[in-house]
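Methods — Computational structure assignment.
A single polypeptide chain was analysed. Its primary sequence is given first, followed by the predicted tertiary structure written as structure tokens.
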Amino acid sequence: MKSRLGYIVIGFLLLIESGYFLYGGMTGDFPLSPTYALILALSVMFLSLGYLHPQFKNKDERMKVIREKGMFYSYFIIMFYFFLFIILIHFQVISISAMGIVLILAALTIMTVFLSMVVLSLIL
């Protein structure tokens, strides 16, 4: 996408959609599903890309450092997510299907990578 506004518009539309699904699931209109977390994750991704667009538009050294460090820190946070889910499932704190775990971990991974880049762009 070439404009920052496009990312922000799509991000807000997905955010509204995920809120609608969450509200509908809480009221019982339709069942809650882990796939709604992916819609929220895509919303976070597009809003983060909207924020990062001015920095990523220029292919400079700062952009490369933000991407590299973002992926580096995200790796350790994602490993924490894996160990947390392993512990929660082992001690039967949560009972969830394998597909549910994969969908939640995918959503957490997307959100972690892009939010870490936003945080690093503020720090660096």
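Note: The chain has one domain: 4-123.
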